[in-house]
Amino acid sequence: MPTIDALSKRLNDYLDPIQIQQVRRSFFYAEEAHDGQKRKSGEPYVTHPFAAANVLAELRMDHQSLMAAMLHDVIEDTDISYEGIESQFGKTVADIVDGVSKLTHLEFETKAEAQASNFQKMVLAMAEDIRVILVKLADRLHNMRTLGAMPPHKQRRIARETLDIYAPIAARLGMRDVQVELEDLAFQAHFPMRSKHIRRAVVQARGQRKDIISTIQDTIEKRLEQEGLSGKVTGREKHLYSIYSKMKAQRKSFSEIMDVFAFRIVTDSVDDCYRALGAVHNLYKPVHGRFKDYIAIPKANGYQSLHTDLFGARDITIEVQIRTHEMDAVASQGIAEHSHYKNDDGTDASESALGSYKRARKWVKGLLEMHQSAGNSMEFIDSVKTDLFPDEVYVFTPLGKILELPSGATAVDFAYAVHTDVGNSCVSCRINRRLAPLSQPLENGQTVEVITTPSAQPNMAWLNFVVTGKARTAIRHYLKNQQRHESVELGQRLLNQFLANYGATLSDIDQFKLRELLNEAELGDLDDLLEDIGLGNRMAYVVARRLRPETPQTGSEEGSSRNHKPMSIKGTEGMVLQYAKCCLPIPGDKIIGHISTGRGLVIHQTDCRNIGYLRDDPEKCIYLEWSENLDEEFSVNLKVEVESHRGIIAELATTASSAGADVVAIDMSDHEGQFANVQMEVTVTDRIHLARVLKKLRNLKSVNRITRE
């Protein structure tokens, strides 16, 4: 374990003496705060925060990050408060420490919930200062290095959490060195036997491959020299977890993965990168479709490089990455490569804050938007896991702007990536100027245009195919709010309907009775009560009876709901009003509403057999009528008995369409000789429209009989 003096010596390379003195002071402060505390391994506790600071020193992080790493467990594990750290080391350091703290004083029902909530809090802190996540990653890396001191069940839980959350975050921030070490350590802890077998196989294969690697490396170096290009060529080792993941995902054997030889060429300039690419393509034949230019179009985490696959001698495949020295540093350390965070006065320390840092900030901003829309911490972390995407597709807006999306993303994901309002109002899309389904997965290089309309709203079916966390969270948030709004509105109408039996309206109810009822039901306000009624979780009849005035002006308690005018239905009430599939009522039919728990109001025809046993129960049913102004279309099921002949289906569909009805479904299943029964589902505006459709269908010579089901 290095000492504080050894660390100070290393910091001399890039920090000034005053900053180094502050780092030393934070170490001694942490040492005193953790005095007497031991780790599971038996070492003094201060060795952990000191090791985390050493990890950040290797990344050449600024002095405030190193101080925060030294102090990151002080608030959580000692009596020292946020104010204590702020008074000693300033607000910036105290904020980073506060963001990293694990918040173990909170009570949770499950470990998963605790993990989700902690991560949610960390995201809020990251939004203020992105160094929070860098300190957290250093903390997690040292914990993984010393995981052997923990009991096996805790090792597996921490390893799983690392693979699910922290390694993907390191990847998302472009910190490949940290990501690789976290993955390999977590893999070893979670799958010790698999890790052991793969490690043994890699050591064995390395000896067998040594000559081939050295031959290919020499050949590439000589070709670059011939072309007058300076470039360092090195062989690239695949790490254990990467090998295991590829074996599992691609269903390949160990030998298939190890038969691919990987090399990296690091050059002085971007121009040299492209010239080196030409040189290796002259040397070996490139594999068709396996070239990727991440220099012109960087990855979402700022990674830049040229990737190409080549056919080598003896049927071997060679993977080559070509990049500049700066790109290589960013590929290893990501945003930690830039020491341009904020000064104490809040100004940027460097104007070169572009590339991976700006992309990281954009990602954190996206996380913050998801956090604001998510219903709870578990839903949020589920969205974040989805959004830590391993592969990207790059698509263009009509104006030529590039958007990075995860592999498998659709036009709906694209719309939400542009703006939440665009996603909420999209109705269709054009991919490369051609109309395409919203659910069609996007491919690299496509131009996507989203068509919107102000009256549109998200469809629940979108949740079946969207892949980005932002789209999923925004759709859920909109639908949840929409359902609440509609439930409250329906609940208000239902309660007013039953209060009218006592000659009252919602504005006449006794506020004392209302407060008493809300307390009993453990509800916050009147809107919560109305939502419960609208969803069918609470009966409007019972609530009206509880809230009725002491001296009703008109009507009576028994049977008065029959005398009152039925409630009017517009047909556009949305998510909490549904039409029964058994009888599919349409305007013109006599209707009755069945209040169903959790679903709201289900509308049946009055003479529907399925509603018979409930028809006279005023607590379950309410009489309804259609509004006079309706412009919606409603589905109707028809059973048509026809004389079967070629083209009969087309004839029926064309006739129904000519009467202004849309044919949703048509099926001919039952055959009896030359007769057949055809099931049709058509949409009409009301009973008069349906009568016109039936008349046209009956006029066909092939139709013997037609009935509405």
Mind explaining what this structure looks like?
The chain is of the alpha+beta class and 709 residues long. It has 5 domains: 4-173, Orthogonal Bundle (Hypothetical protein af1432); 199-334, Beta Polymerase, domain 2 (2-Layer Sandwich); 389-459, Ubiquitin-like (UB roll) (Roll), CATH 3.10.20.30; 476-626, no CATH class; 634-708, Alpha-Beta Plaits (2-Layer Sandwich). Helices cover 48% and strands 17% of the residues. Strands 1, 2, 3, 4, 5 and 6 form a 6-stranded mixed beta sheet that branches. The longest helix has 35 residues, at 192-226. Mean pLDDT is 81; it is low at 102-109, 339-353 and 554-563.
- For this structure, what is the CATH homologous superfamily of the largest domain? Hypothetical protein af1432
Q: What is the CATH third-level topology name of the largest domain?
A: Hypothetical protein af1432
Task: Identify the CATH architecture of the largest domain.
Answer: Orthogonal Bundle
* Averaged pLDDT: 81
How large a portion of the residues is in β-strands, by DSSP E?
Answer: 15-25%
Which radius of gyration do the C-alpha atoms yield? 34 Å
Catalogue the unreliable spans: 102-109, 339-353, 554-563
SS field, number of helical segments: 27
Return the domain count.
5
Report how far the terminal alpha carbons are from each other. Answer: 81 Å
- Tell how many strands the DSSP assignment holds: 20
Shape: globular
